[in-house]
Design goal:
2% of the residues lie in helices and 53% in strands. By secondary structure, it is mainly β. It has two domains: 13-33 and 196-306 and 316-331, Methylamine Dehydrogenase, Chain H (7 Propeller); 34-156, Methylamine Dehydrogenase, Chain H, CATH 2.130.10.
Length: 337
């Protein structure tokens, strides 16, 4: 792997057309849609939210291990491995389910706001942030007790979020305002709102906490790199249509934006610049993702869909029982297209 990474460091974008390749499809099946993916590199587990449950996948065996049930309308699953706890944002219940990661059983539920969606674990203060989509607020929960610590009003509809423990900040995309809300983790309050121009209507967010860089996927087909200390937009690269998630791999310094049009853009963080590495062709609907920092594999979820109709504003209908996880691995022999 070290030799591969050294070779990639010398790559120019024009020669990286096959940097990542599809290596596996893991059938999931079932009914209903999906949203966020969460990956625990130590436990070697991938958690895929799926309608009313969370599907747990062994990423070494690349097979389904179990399911966590009782999470209606689940959007995200935040992991606190040192506490052996997981926290599910149950959109239909307006609650956060607290799950034992050993038994995969729900221990309790904590009330949140209206339709909790994005959710993260802030490791420094051992707190969970549930971002309530319709409620336009953030519910902050003590991870060890499940008690609500604070509720923070937001200026608009929250989407993906990220935490920087060293800066004492949590960041959240406010999609309908085209800005990033900056929350102080000690005061539990918003201290700034950063515009994302030239980006608009941001959804995905990931972070490089070592270098304090945010990666923001925007619906005007751009992925931005923002300085997490100042809010300055440093650079951007073009991406596909219908972005939802972003991810970052600290080992390769690759940032990813996964889009519903069946593309995932891969760019390398080079100081204050983003270098486009690959526009990976995936599958239609593969809009959320996770990355394994140990193997550098990326995981996306999609399904098969009925043929498109003439209504361009209507999502194509998913064919039942066709949901799957797509596994993409780094090509050990990338070559010129």
């Amino acid at each position: 792997m070290l030799a591969l990474l050294l070779a990639l460091a010398a790559f120019v974008p024009a020669r990286a057309a096959d940097l990542y390749l599809l290596t596996r499809e893991i059938p999931v099946g079932g009914e209903g849609g999906w949203d966020y993916l969460s990956l625990d590199p130590s436990a070697r587990r991938l958690y895929v939210t799926h309608s009313t449950k969370i599907v747990v996948i062994d990423i070494d065996k690349e097979e389904i291990l179990a399911s966590i049930t009782g999470t209606p309308g689940v959007h995200g699953f935040a992991l606190a491995p040192e506490l052996q706890r997981g926290f599910a944002s149950d959109g239909r219940d307006g609650a956060v389910s607290i799950v034992d990661l050993r038994s995969l059983k729900t221990l309790s539920k904590t009330p949140a706001g209206e339709e909790p969606d994005a959710i993260l674990y802030e490791v420094a203060r051992k707190e969970v942030y549930a971002f309530n989509g319709r409620g336009k607020s953030a519910t902050i929960i003590a991870a060890e007790t499940g008690a609500v610590v604070a509720t923070v009003p937001l200026a608009g509809k929250p989407e993906f979020a990220a935490a920087d423990a060293a800066l004492g900040r949590v960041f959240c995309n406010i999609e309908d305002k085209s800005e990033v809300a900056v929350l102080d983790t000690k005061m539990h309050s918003i201290i700034s709102a950063w515009p994302i121009a030239p980006g608009k209507d941001a959804s995905g967010m990931a972070i490089d906490p070592a270098r304090h860089r945010l990666f923001i996927g925007c619906h005007n087909e751009q992925m931005l790199m923002m300085d997490a200390a100042t809010g300055t937009v440093l650079d951007s690269v073009p991406i596909g249509k219908g972005v939802d998630a972003c991810a970052f791999d600290p080992g390769t310094r690759f940032a990813f934006s996964s889009c519903g049009d069946g593309t995932t853009t891969i760019a390398r963080e080079d100081g204050d610049k983003l270098t486009l590495m690959q526009n990976l062709a995936t599958r239609r609907g593969a809009r959320t993702m996770a990355v394994d920092p140990r193997t550098h594999k990326i995981y996306l979820v999609t399904a098969d869909f009925e043929a498109s109709n003439d209504d361009q504003n209507r999502r194509p209908r998913m064919i039942p029982r066709t949901m799957k996880v797509l596994v993409y691995s780094m090509n050990p022999h990338p070559s010129a297209p």
